[in-house]
């Protein structure tokens, strides 16, 4: 057998060459496992503050409480006894809380924590550092100092406005999360200028800006600033800021403010839209996309959606979606989608939903839903308008209901008022307790007393003044010799009856009135049948009364303005006396005494002549 180097045989060398790769792989695996265990130990160390513990002590020394927490989490606390007084007595009840949560309960926000191996090191919290950026801003062409220039930092939402001498002073926070700092200088009719800064150091600058030479920006003061509330609560500096920063807006999760300009976003609040906004007295923001609450007022330059509540009023220059409630008023310049509810007055561009005001609702455009006001509703067009006193609209596609008066240019539905309705054109029904006024009516016009229209075929009222209808005055007599002077007025189909009556065929004369409704049924050019439902009530004013309810059919012949009519009908009378018949026969069908009053059902007759005008 061959003997090689240092006496190793070929067989031995061959066996070693087989095991060498295996030994190398095992070494690599062992090294990887060591790294894994080391990283796992590090992760465990890093999670000391997240371990769950339970503490329930009363007036116990702080050092003992910390030792107890360490035992539960299998770690130790390290701290300076000059900072943490371990003999101080503490009371805390925390079940199933993390170590970090319990430490915050014990030590508050005055401490910060670091971890290393099995130790939590308690250190005093770092105090917030600030640095100042100040300087002067001048006109790049004239060299004059520029007042009312906005200087702001976008990340921190810090801002300042130059005085008459062009001087500004801006304080910025020196935090690790703010890795850079950049200020922007902005003024209406001037070009915006941005400048990067050396972070963390006080600096004094001298800056120039030049007028905009090509396109002038839109710098119109919004309606919010022009409103009485804006003049009262929004300072001149905030209005200037709104002018200068008209194109800069940013979203933030929340805002807390006392009054406009005093809060988490300072003088930049008008450029910030928030998810949640809490304003103690009032707030001034770019908008809200969530919930906004105020003790007195909310003012939004753009949109507000979901929930907006204020003790006095809400003002939104954009759109509102969701629920908007103000103790006194709400104002939305554009569109409301949802519910707008105020104790006194609501104003909106157009409404899709419900606009409810204790006194007044105003929609500058359309209400596609319900507009209900304790006193008045005003809209260009509306689906449903309900007011305790008055509704005003150009167009109604639905219902317009008021306790006193409705006014509309066009009605496609129903117009209902306790006293008067006024409309240009009605396609449906116009119903009023006293009077209806309309141009053209395609439907029914019903009034307790009078209807007025250019054309209306179906007016229902005692007096109907229809330009393209009929009106006639005439005299007639019935079988008792009662003479009636009556006005018959209406459209081509329906008319009203209002007249006075007298009868001398009694021991003493009696007088009365007749009121009723009638319908025309044309047969030929000069012949038609009039059907009337009327009530005649007469008295001698000493206790003798006679009431006659009649449904009669009266054929009529008309020649020019003169119309002759005569007919018979079914009459139901209630009386304390009865006039003597002048007709040849008694046509009574039934008679009785009911509740101390005579009652009779009979065939009645009527004939007369009337003149059309």
Overall mean pLDDT score? 86
- Total helices: the number is 6
* Main sheet: strand order: 34-35-36-37-38-39-40-42
Radius of gyration: 46 Å
The structural domain count equals 5
Index terms:
Phage tail protein beta-alpha-beta fold; 5 domains; six-stranded parallel barrel; 613 residues; 57% strand; Immunoglobulin-like; mainly beta; 13% helix
Report a brief summary of the structure.
With about 625 residues, the chain is mainly beta.
Written account of the structure:
This protein is mainly beta and 613 residues long. The protein folds into 5 domains: 5-46; 48-124, Phage tail protein beta-alpha-beta fold; 130-209, Sandwich (Immunoglobulin-like), CATH 2.60.40; 223-410; 469-612, Beta Barrel (Porin). Helix content is 13%, strand content 57%. The chain has 6 helices and 42 strands. Strand 38 (527-539) and strand 39 (545-559) form a beta hairpin. The protein is elongated. The N and C termini lie far apart (151 Å). 34% of the residues are buried.
């Amino acid at each position: 057998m061959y003997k090689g180097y240092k006496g190793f045989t070929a067989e031995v060398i061959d066996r070693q060459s087989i095991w060498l790769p295996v030994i190398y792989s095992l070494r690599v695996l062992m090294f990887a496992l060591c790294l894994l265990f080391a990283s796992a130990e590090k992760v465990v160390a890093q999670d000391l503050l997240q371990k769950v513990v339970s503490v329930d002590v009363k007036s116990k020394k702080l050092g003992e409480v910390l030792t107890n927490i360490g035992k539960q989490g299998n770690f130790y606390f390290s701290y300076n006894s000059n900072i943490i007084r371990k003999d101080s007595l503490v009371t805390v009840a925390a079940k199933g809380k993390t170590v970090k949560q319990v430490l915050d309960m014990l030590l508050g926000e005055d401490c910060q924590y670091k971890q290393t191996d099995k130790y939590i090191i308690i250190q005093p919290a770092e105090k917030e550092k600030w640095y100042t950026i100040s300087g002067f801003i001048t006109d790049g062409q004239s060299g004059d100092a520029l007042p009312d220039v906005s200087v702001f930092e976008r990340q921190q939402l810090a801002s300042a406005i130059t005085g008459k001498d062009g001087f500004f002073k801006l304080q910025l926070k020196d935090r690790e999360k703010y890795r850079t700092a950049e200020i922007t200088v902005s003024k209406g009719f001037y070009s915006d200028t941005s400048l990067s800064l050396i972070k963390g150091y006080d600096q004094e600058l001298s800056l120039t800006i030049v007028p905009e030479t090509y396109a002038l920006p839109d710098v119109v003061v919004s309606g919010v600033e022009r409103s009485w509330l804006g003049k009262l609560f929004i300072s001149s500096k905030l209005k200037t800021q709104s002018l200068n920063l008209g194109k800069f807006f940013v979203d933030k999760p929340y805002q807390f403010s006392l009054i406009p300009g005093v809060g988490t976003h300072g003088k930049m609040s008008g450029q910030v839209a928030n998810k949640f906004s809490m304003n103690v007295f009032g707030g001034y923001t770019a908008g809200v996309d969530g919930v906004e609450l105020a003790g007195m007022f909310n003012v939004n330059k753009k949109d507000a959606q979901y929930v907006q509540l204020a003790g006095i009023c809400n003002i939104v220059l954009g759109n509102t979606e969701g629920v908007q409630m103000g103790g006194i008023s709400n104002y939305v310049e554009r569109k409301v989608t949802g519910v707008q509810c105020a104790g006194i007055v609501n104003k909106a561009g157009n409404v899709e939903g419900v606009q409810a005001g204790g006194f007044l609702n105003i929609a500058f455009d359309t209400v596609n839903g319900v507009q209900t006001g304790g006193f008045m509703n005003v809209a260009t067009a509306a689906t449903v308008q309900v007011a305790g006193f008055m509704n005003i609209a150009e167009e109604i596609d639905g219902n317009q209901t008021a306790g006193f008066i409705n006014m509309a240019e066009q009605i496609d539905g129903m117009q209902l008022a306790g006293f008067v309705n006024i409309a240009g054109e009605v396609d449906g029904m116009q119903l009023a307790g006293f009077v209806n006024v309309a141009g053209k009516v395609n439907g029914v016009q019903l009034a307790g007393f009078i209807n007025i229209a250019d054309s209306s075929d179906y007016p229902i009222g005692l007096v109907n003044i229809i330009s393209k209808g009929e009106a006639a005055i005439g005299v007639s007599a019935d079988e008792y010799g009662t003479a009636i002077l009556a006005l018959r007025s209406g459209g081509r189909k329906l008319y009203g009856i209002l007249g006075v009556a007298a009868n001398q065929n009694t021991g003493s004369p009696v007088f009365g009135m007749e009121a009723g409704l009638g319908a025309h049924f044309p047969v030929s050019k000069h012949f038609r049948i009039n059907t009337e439902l009327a009530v005649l009530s007469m008295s001698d004013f000493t206790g003798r009364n006679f009431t006659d309810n009649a449904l009669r059919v009266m054929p009529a012949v008309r020649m020019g303005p003169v119309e002759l009519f005569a007919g018979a009908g079914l009459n139901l009378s209630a009386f304390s006396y009865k006039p003597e018949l002048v007709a040849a026969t008694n046509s009574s069908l039934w008679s009785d005494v009911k509740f101390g009053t005579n009652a009779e059902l009979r065939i009645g007759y009527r004939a007369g002549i009337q003149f059309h005008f």
